[in-house]
Specification:
Blueprint (H helix, E strand, L loop, with lengths): L6 E2 L5 E7 L3 E7 L10 E3 L16 E6 L8 H12 L11 E5 L4 H14 L18 E6 L9 E6 L18 H15 L10 H4 L4 H8 L8 H8 L3 H12 L13 H8 L4 E7 L7 E5 L10 H14 L16 H4 L1
Parallel strand pairs: 1-6, 2-4
Antiparallel strand pairs: 2-3, 3-5, 5-7, 6-7, 8-9, 9-10
Length: 337
């Protein structure tokens, strides 16, 4: 069977481990000035021999898939992205992704390095024991939003979450969907002896009042200049476009279509993406804003029922009403309105 015309990662590519989440690991692609060996190499940190990024991979990182119970092939992820996500935004608004074939032995070498990193205490404990899929033939080249090649820039990132209220929320709600869920989780955390999570209200992000956006900006990680970040976010076109799509795809909560439907999959995906904001320190250059983490959500593995149960719990236990007095004061815009 002939392979589709995808890019192929060269056999001599060297990978530098950057970070990992529950389902994927991100690597930087590099090459040595004078390679003395043949075959892929994996380096667990950026220290070590001087490496350069091959010209054809500048501005790109490599994402590799872990072996998980609900893992979806990268070809399906790429197909969903091209058909469903890409038409909603301009190319410059998205963390792009492109399939690339992996050379033989690369994933096995990566897994060996992950195992070694565990023994050396270099891999996060909560990620240990799960390795890359050896049956996945592809990786994904994704837009590099780090400041690695642009050291005079700042990277801020945030998860916009639900930019409008859940249609199932009570009419007298004092919490938006995101703040209600945060209250519930903070209550559970306190009962278990843990700390509360403090964050912004998504309704502040898309507010017409600059002071509300500024209030949200103080919780965004990565930027110390909160006023400047607020000016970037205030009425930002990409953020407003995300809000528009959430409004159009608001069949979520208890009364939307089947949780297994493609419509709800897209609606939930748009409510769980990440916004990356990269801007120069000197305020002279352009600002780059892209949305990532836009793999189409799936209701498989009990996720669909979880969404429904969670909404029922938020309603039934009064989290939308903000009745729990044992928590820190809420940042929710509805509470202040």
């Amino acid at each position: 069977m002939t392979k589709p015309a995808f890019l192929e990662l060269p056999a001599g590519a060297q990978l530098i481990y950057l970070a990992e989440g529950g389902a994927n690991i991100i690597y930087r692609i590099a090459s040595a000035p004078s390679p003395s060996h043949i075959g892929p190499t994996v380096i667990h940190s950026a220290s070590g021999p001087h490496l350069t990024v091959p010209p054809e991979f500048k501005g790109k990182l490599l994402r590799l898939r872990k072996e998980t119970k609900t893992g979806i092939s990268y070809q399906e992820i790429a197909r969903n992205f091209d058909r469903t996500i890409r038409p909603l935004f301009s190319p410059e608004e998205l963390v792009d992704q492109e399939l690339v074939y992996l050379p033989n032995g690369l994933v096995q070498r990566c897994n060996e390095q992950l195992s070694a990193a565990e023994h050396n205490g270099e891999r996060p404990k909560k990620r240990q024991g799960v390795y890359l899929s050896v049956t996945e033939p592809c990786g994904l080249l994704v837009t590099d939003m780090t400041t690695h090649c642009t050291p005079d820039t700042v990277l801020a990132e945030l998860k916009p979450k639900w930019l409008m209220q859940s249609p199932s929320a009570p009419v007298n709600a004092r919490r938006c969907r995101t703040c209600a869920l945060r209250d519930m989780k903070n209550h559970q955390s306190r009962r278990a002896g843990g700390a509360e999570e403090l964050s912004f209200c998504p309704l502040d992000l898309v507010s017409d009042k600059f002071e509300n956006v500024l209030r949200a900006a103080k919780y965004v990680k990565g930027s110390e200049d909160q006023a400047r970040l607020a000016r970037i976010l205030y009425r930002n076109p990409t953020l407003q476009k995300l809000l528009t799509h959430q409004k159009a795809m608001r069949d979520v909560g208890l009364h939307g279509p089947s949780a297994q439907s493609r419509e709800q999959s897209l609606a939930m995906t748009l409510r769980d993406c990440t916004m990356f904001i990269k801007f120069p320190r000197d305020e002279m250059g352009p600002v780059e804003i892209r949305l990532g983490d836009l793999d189409l959500k799936t209701g498989a593995g009990g996720k669909a029922q979880y969404w429904l149960n969670l909404e029922s719990q938020l309603i039934g236990e009064g989290w939308y009403l903000g009745n729990n007095s044992d928590l820190s004061p809420s940042e929710c815009l509805l509470q202040r309105s």
